Amino acid sequence: MVIQLGTGELMIFILLKEGTDSSQGIPQLVSNISACQVIAEAVRTTLGPRGMDKLIVDGRGKATISNDGATILKLLDVVHPAAKTLVDIAKSQDAEVGDGTTSVTLLAAEFLKQVKPYVEEGLHPQIIIRAFRTATQLVWAVLINLILPLCPREQRKLLEKCAMTALSSKLISQQKAFFAKMVVDAVMMLDDLLQLKMIGIKKVQGGALEDSQLVAGVAFKKTFSYAGFEMQPKKYHNPKIALLNVELELKAEKDNAEIRVHTVEDYQAIVDAEWNILYDKLEKIHHSGAKVVLSKLPIGDVATQYFADRDMFCAGRVPEEDLKRTMMACGGSIQTSVNALSADVLGRCQVFEETQIGGERYNFFTGCPKAKTCTFILRGGAEQFMEETERSLHDAIMIVRRAIKNDSVVAGGGAIEMELSKYLRDYSRTIPGKQQLLIGAYAKALEIIPRQLCDNAGFDATNILNKLRARHAQGGTWYGVDINNEDIADNFEAFVWEPAMVRINALTAASEAACLIVSVDETIKNPRSTVDAPPAAGRGRGRGRPH
């Protein structure tokens, strides 16, 4: 840093470590805005029902096909510090409401694009931030008045419409009616907390998408089994279920253990003691009345045969997630010992059954009394396709949960953005000064959603946006892009609905991100610390004998 003193003398101070990269001022701000626009370009074409998919290959060669904004941005591994902000808001949108991840990224980038000329002309960032915060508060107030509450009598039908809107932009849009019904069924099975972890999703390769099914209970893949497993019954009615974290097999001696025996009888006593410990555990499980035994740890061949002889079913090495879901659904608790297997720690269900699905065998627990849970079993060809189906269902489930918790909806397809844009444009004409220009820029940025929907569908965006502006000026509040007929339509009448929370969250997060990026005027990058390693000591002439 160079400082000029009053005497005209120049003083040089070194404040930062050598190699530190520092950039500031308007060029730095413009650079950050440009980086955010590059991020938006990566997901721009994935928006809407006619959006394209992205094929992303990671460092290990694993391919992912997706058009979910949050998934794409996570896989891109962005390193630019300002651009990471857009990745973060996409992740937060995904966690909070599940859908609208591409919209929030596009809106934030478009807000920045519209204010870029003002930044280059030297307008102070704080004026921009103040205008954006004012615009966001106005938008919030208008949205609260526009949202429409769901009718409790027709709640199920309305939730299906919301799920179909969420699925219409996904890879499985052709089967959206089939999956929307399943998603609403799944969420309706849950208790009042609507816990996402109570919905399991399992993927089985083979078959068609329509072969997918929803199980009203817990289902998980058959685990590794030993000889004797096939002799066990595969179906029970009203069984008691023991959930264990106990190893039921003969344990190998520890590596560092040493036992010295002098007679064969002593050795035989040690072997018998091991067997007796195992049989003692098995007898306690049998006497507890449990018919189905699940353990997180291995169940060996001796135990498998023992249970088969007594008409009991067992499964070892059950994944912890599935074991916990079974516990939450069937009741009982996971035991780390078999000494206290009383009736209150055993789970129950109406029917337990092992069923063949494609090339896999699955264990089904249905009619679970304790907590309400369900499991999707997805079928399909390619592994990437099934993974994208799982992500699509996750988005739809989140939307339905959000619609139940916040029972209000708005019309999608760019309708709500056009109405808010019209309101802000009219408001900006009533105020003087720079705020007028900036709120007008905010209003113009909102049009990116209908414009991009048109571009992705191959429509003439300018023509359709002109029609939309004219219709909204005449009072057509819910008019948006009609993808099927290359025109505009009342999207509320066309049942293109989404929870109001999706739009509120997207606009708030995008505006906050834009304000955050505009408020940064300097970036300082510290160099990587390179600590010089001490020179290796070696023996040579003149060095004494090492101590």
UniProtKB/TrEMBL annotation:
Catalyzed reactions per annotation: ATP + H2O = ADP + phosphate + H(+)
InterPro entries to which the protein is assigned, alphabetical: Chap_CCT_eta, Chaperone_TCP-1, Chaperonin_TCP-1_CS, Cpn60/GroEL/TCP-1, GroEL-like_apical_dom_sf, GROEL-like_equatorial_sf, TCP-1-like_intermed_sf, TCP-1_chaperonin
Protein's cellular compartments: Cytoplasm
Highest taxon of the lineage: Eukaryota
A UniProt-annotated Pfam family: Cpn60_TCP1
Coiled coil: none
Chaperone found in the keyword field: yes
Residue numbers spanned by region Disordered: 527-547
Gene Ontology BP, a term: protein stabilization
Quaternary structure and interacting proteins, as annotated: Heterooligomeric complex that forms two stacked rings. Component of the chaperonin-containing T-complex (TRiC), a hexadecamer composed of two identical back-to-back stacked rings enclosing a protein folding chamber. Each ring is made up of eight different subunits: TCP1/CCT1, CCT2, CCT3, CCT4, CCT5, CCT6A/CCT6, CCT7, CCT8. Interacts with PACRG. Interacts with DLEC1.
Protein's name according to its UniProt entry: T-complex protein 1 subunit eta
Highest classification ranks of the organism: Eukaryota, Metazoa, Chordata, Craniata, Vertebrata
